Structures are given as C-alpha cells and as structure tokens.
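for the recovery benchmark. tokens below, seq after
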C-alpha cells in the first residue's frame, strides 16, 4: 500500500489583513529606478490598484505626466550602486506614508543589476515593511555583463541582510534579462 497523504506544513502564517474584505485590500506598485519604472508602467490606470509610484535618481526614465520622486541629485547612477547610495538612503527615510502610497500590499519593482534601482528597491522594501505593508518584489536580473553580474550579487546580499535584520519574509519574482 501507499503511505497516507499528509498535508504540507505551511512555511509562513496565512496573510491576514485584520479580517478585511479582499476587495478592500489596498495595493501599491512602487517602481524603483529605470527598469522598475518600466515594470510598473503596464499598471498605470488599473483601478484595482491604490497607487502606481516611481522612485529614481533622475528624470531620465520618466515620461510626460508621470510623477517621479527624485531621491538623489538628479543625474542618475550610471550603473554604479555606490554613486547615490548615501543620498538615496537619507531621502527614502524622509518619505512620508503619503509619499509612499502606504497600503496593505506593496509590490516593489526594480533591477537587481542596475545602479539606481538596485539601491532604491531594497530600501523601499525595508521602508514598506517597517511601516506595516506586506511586500512582494518583482525584479529583473541581467548577469550577461560583468557590472550587471556584480550588481546582481551585491543587491541580493543587500536584500538578504535587509530581510534578515528586519524580519521580512519576502516573496520575490525574478525575471531574467540575460541574452545568451
């Protein structure tokens, strides 16, 4: 005979939103950096979302009419994670709940491989989680070039430390942009 089937042990507790009706759960898309902005764009105008917001280090990736919170000197990071990291960290900490579109669930979109997004994204995850939101990361990775591979590795290390130090259980969807 076959052994009896036993139910799987859940890895985490089920998500509870204080008994809210699922249709009243608010969701924000927070695009971070150029790739994060591009990942968030398809959701603009979706009535099911509370907010679609963008956070970057320059206006280079924005389109007319889009609201972008500039978190550094406005010149971008040029693929360098270190270029604006200190200024970005200081400015993210000063964002208000209203600036962040604080909601029940935050989907933070960014590139693991870039300069701006790879710094902004993990810090946004930390800030949303600290403020009580459930956070999901939707990220893109491109390890087909040396800087991208190095940035990806360092961003994953940063995310690991942030999640560990802040007790964040982070579901992450990774899209690969590697060109064979």
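predicted aa per position
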């Amino acid at each position: 005979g076959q052994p009896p089937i036993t139910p799987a042990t859940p890895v985490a507790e089920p998500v509870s939103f204080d008994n809210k009706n699922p249709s009243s759960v608010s969701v924000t898309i927070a695009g971070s950096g150029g790739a994060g902005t591009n990942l968030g764009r398809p959701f603009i105008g979706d009535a099911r979302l509370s907010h679609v917001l963008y956070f970057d280090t320059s206006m280079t990736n924005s389109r007319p009419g889009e609201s972008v919170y500039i978190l550094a000197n406005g010149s971008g990071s040029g693929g360098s994670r270190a270029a604006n990291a200190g200024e970005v960290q200081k400015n993210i900490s000063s964002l208000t709940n209203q600036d962040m579109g604080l909601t029940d669930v935050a989907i933070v979109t960014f590139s693991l491989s870039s300069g701006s997004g790879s710094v902004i994204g993990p810090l946004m995850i930390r800030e949303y989680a600290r403020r009580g939101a459930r956070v999901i990361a939707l990220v893109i990775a491109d390890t087909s070039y040396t800087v991208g591979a190095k940035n990806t590795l360092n961003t994953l290390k940063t995310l690991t430390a942030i999640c560990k130090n802040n007790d964040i259980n982070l579901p992450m969807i990774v899209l690969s942009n590697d060109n064979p």
